[in-house]
Amino acid sequence: MDHRYLANQLLAAFGKTLTVSGLALGEDDTCVLLFDDDLALTIEFDESEQRLVFSIFLDKLAEDAGYAGPLLRELLAANLYWLGTGGASVGLQSSTGALMLFQASPVAAFDDSSFEHLLDQLLKTAERLRKRAAAHRAGLASGADDATPPAALASEIPPIYG
What we know:
The structure is a single chain. The chain has four helices and five strands, in the order αβββαββαα. The protein has a five-stranded antiparallel beta sheet. Strand 2 (about 40-45) and strand 3 form a beta hairpin. The protein has helices at about 5-15, 70-80, 110-135, 150-155; strands at about 30-35, 40-45, 50-60, 90-95, 100-105. It is elongated, with a radius of gyration of 17 Å. It has a single domain, classed as 2-Layer Sandwich (Yope Regulator, Chain: A), CATH 3.30.1460.10. The longest helix is centred in the C-terminal third of the chain and has 26 residues, at about 110-135. The protein is of the alpha+beta class.
C-alpha cells in the first residue's frame, strides 16, 4: 500500500470540507494549513514510519519569562496520560523556545472521518492551550485549566510502572 498516496487522499477529502481543492503534500512531504490567520497546522508525512506527524506552534517561551514555571507546570499536567491534550503532547523546542502541540499517527489508521476528527481536536486543543499561555504571559492565569484532571481523578491514575 502506498501510504503517501493514502495521506494525499485524506488531505484531498479534508480539503473538500474546507472548500480547498487540490490539498496535498508538497514535494517535501509537508502540508501547512493556516486557520484564523495565525494558527498554523503542519502535517508531515514520515515515510520511514508510514505515519503523519501533526504539529502546531502554541507560543514562544522567553528564557527570562517569570510566568514560565506555572505555565510549564500546567502544560505538564495536561500531558499526563494526554488528559488535557486530547491525545496529543506538548513539548518545548529548546533552541527556539517554541511551545509545540504535536501528535503522530499511522496513515493506515485513518479514514476521512477520523482524520477530520483528529484535526478538529488538535485545533481546539491548540486554541485552548494558546489562551492559557496568553493568560500566563499577561499574569491573568488564575489556576489550572479546566482540562487539568481534578485531584480525585489524578489519585485514581495507576502508576506507570509497578
